[in-house]
């Protein structure tokens, strides 16, 4: 069963006209009607969607927060970095719409726990702990799947940091790189592509970076 939230006006004769999503066209459906009166001066509710992801546009914060760190659904494994996640949850980020579009292309996105820690820290520092709590509580209903680092990942990350010492590749990015090698992931979701473009992974010629 799917849930839709619609706003409609009751005509003088008691009739109501409902506009359903196009993906339901030419289908037989059963409706269960639960209603409440609303103030006609209130802002309209968001357009109805079959799936409402709790992390998309979770808060409105600093447009630059994410920098501190296409139609078809893809089935490949992908990894997300901190900037991508922050741009997704921060609807004031200038790349929010672009990141949201990429996010919706993948049914599952691997989220390294080191990324989760960094995102929680940045959001808590700049927006507040209540938003961090909302973010953490929304993860199970999102497309993100937490992935823990292994001893192998940490050792490989240290090696990458040392190998690219002059380029100052940071630990979180190097951990994502190490995890990508271990899991044979070739696509990274990131808006800060510098470190991932410098790095030459062992399992492929280079990463595919989105957006």
Would you spell out the secondary-structure blueprint of this structure?
Blueprint: E1 78-80, H1 82-89, H2 96-103, E2 109-112, H3 113-126, H4 129-138, E3 144-147, H5 151-163, H6 171-183, E4 187-189, H7 194-198, E5 208-210
Globally, the shape reads elongated
The number of distinct helices, counting runs of at least 4 residues, comes to 7
Q: Roughly how much helix do the residues carry, as a percent range?
A: 25-40%
Strand runs, count: 5
How would you describe this protein?
This protein is mainly α and 211 residues long. 34% of the residues lie in helices and 8% in strands. The protein has seven helices and five strands, in the order E-H-H-E-H-H-E-H-H-E-H-E. It has helices spanning 82-89, 96-103, 113-126, 129-138, 151-163, 171-183, 194-198, and strands at 78-80, 109-112, 144-147, 187-189, 208-210. The strands form two sheets. Strands 1-4-5 form a three-stranded parallel beta sheet. Strands 2-3 form a two-stranded parallel sheet. Strand 4 (187-189), helix 7 (194-198) and strand 5 (208-210) form a beta-alpha-beta unit. The relative contact order is 0.14. Residues 42-50 have low confidence and may be disordered.
List keywords for this structure.
about 210 residues; mainly alpha; three-stranded parallel sheet; two-stranded parallel sheet; elongated
């Amino acid at each position: 069963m799917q849930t839709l939230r619609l706003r409609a006006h009751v005509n003088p004769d008691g009739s109501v006209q409902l506009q359903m999503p196009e993906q339901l066209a030419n289908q037989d459906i059963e409706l269960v009607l639960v209603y409440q009166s609303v103030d006609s001066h209130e802002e309209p509710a968001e357009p109805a969607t079959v799936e409402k992801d709790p992390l998309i546009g979770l808060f409105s914060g600093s447009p630059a927060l994410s920098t501190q760190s296409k139609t078809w659904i893809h089935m490949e494994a992908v990894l997300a970095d901190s900037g991508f996640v922050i741009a997704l949850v921060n609807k004031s980020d200038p790349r929010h719409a672009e990141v949201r579009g990429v996010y919706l292309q993948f049914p599952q996105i691997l989220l390294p726990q080191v990324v989760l820690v960094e995102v929680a820290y940045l959001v808590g520092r700049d927006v507040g702990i209540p938003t961090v709590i909302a973010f953490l509580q929304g993860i199970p209903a999102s497309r993100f799947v937490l992935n823990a680092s292994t001893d192998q990942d940490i050792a490989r990350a240290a090696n990458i940091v040392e190998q690219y010492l002059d380029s100052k590749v940071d630990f979180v990015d190097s951990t994502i790189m190490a995890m990508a090698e271990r899991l044979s992931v070739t696509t990274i979701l990131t808006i800060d592509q510098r470190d991932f473009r410098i790095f030459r992974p062992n399992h492929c010629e280079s990463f595919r970076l989105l957006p």
